[in-house]
Amino acid sequence: MDSRRSFIGRVATGLAGTIAAPSGVLGAGDRVRIGIVGAGERGTQLARDALACGNSEVTAWADVYQRRLESVAGVAPGGGFYRDYQALLGSRDVDAVVIAT
Fold this sequence. Notes:
The mean pLDDT is about 80. The chain is built from four helices and four strands, in the order H-E-H-E-H-E-H-E. It is an alpha/beta fold. The protein is elongated.
């Protein structure tokens, strides 16, 4: 007679062999590309905190005020700038989004 523990162990072993990671998953050495919605003081600070963690880069900013977008150009050079957050969300250059509005 099988015990409950051995049955669960066999089921778990069988399931572990059938689960495969999707191909779009980032590996440990990959960089996370971050988009920031809200380029004010809070968004700028969160971007600096994310960059300090390593393995991350800010690739896009979105804000309705053009002056704020111009002021964050030095924080993450080379990033895309959007006046509409929906364009940032649709960007293929962003893996994660921080909303700082």
